[in-house]
Please model this.
Amino acid sequence: MAGFIDQIEPLKAAALAEFAAATDLAAMEQARVNHLGSNGRFTALLKGLGALPKEEKPAAGKAINLAKNELEAALVQKRGELELRAALPKDPTDFTAPGRRRVVGKLHPLTQVTEDIVRSFRKIGFAVADGPEVEDEYHCFDALNTPADHPARDSQDTFYVGAVPSATAGQQNAPQRGLLRTHTSSVQIRVMKSQPPPVRIIVPGRVYRRDNADATHNPTFHQVEGLYVDRNVTVGDLKGTVEFVFRELMGPETKIRFRPHYFSYTEPSFEIDFSSSLTRKMGKEWLEIAGCGMVHPQVFENVGYDPEVWTGWAFGFGIERIAMIRYGISDIRLFYENNLRFLRQF
Ligand code: DAH
Model:
């Protein structure tokens, strides 16, 4: 019988040749079993190592281990190549073909307008706050000085849900009738109850009304609320702030005017009209755009602020309305249909 060491090379060469000849992963696996499997030819030689005389063992062991390492490396390498080949497409790739265009999405026009509004208010130090869309009557109406028999509740009819726990309503811990909030004004109450003055926030968010959808109404839409509370706050501050923001949103030549109005949570209250090239494009000099006023002392009482010390103003306006005027959109429902031919224009 040939010497142990002399058998190594021919066995190794045979194994390497079979590895090299394998053209797929199955053939490769068969080649591995033939040589390195527990009944493989190379393995058989390896098993013979133990029977060698003691003095031959070190040299023989070293030689066969080197060969084994070489075979295992070759196995890994060839298997990697075959796996890669198996993963490649069967048809050849035409690298000269034009690339496939990726459709890049964009922000919804209402999101764009909301971000513009937020950006403008951030410049003058307002923080963004939010609150739940499923509200309770206390935060949406009562705390805003709008009791159950108040006529303003008719114009803000909404969708009622079951009782919700009233987490922060100071005076009542009983469960409250739940509703979808009709305006973002409810967040005024939540914020003031959660922190001491001063307050300087805006609240963008979705609101709900029991309205039938038409060109200017939808049962859900979006508002931005603003609230500023500090010492010695005046209507002048309110007007200056509103003017700054509307000029940013609607162009630098925008003018605003206040008309007396009524809201139960502000006194005095105003409606804000604005005028710009955009309103003239719509055939009007002035367009009504927002409600606002000085925070009613009763609202301060309701949240635990001392009305003798603190003053403030608040406003609210619809985001859809701003977007419609800005982009000349005549039907509010277009915002919610998600027709790509409409959305791609913004
Ligand atoms: N909540 C009013 C609405 O939905 C808008 C509004 C008016 C908000 C006056 C205010 C405000 O904060 O002071 O029509």
User: Anything to note?
Assistant: Strands lie at 127-128, 134-136, 160-164, 176-180, 199-208, 220-230, 255-263, 266-275, 287-295, 311-318. The radius of gyration is 38 Å. Residues 183, 185, 225, 263, 266, 291-293, 314-316 surround 3,4-dihydroxyphenylalanine (CB under 6 Å).
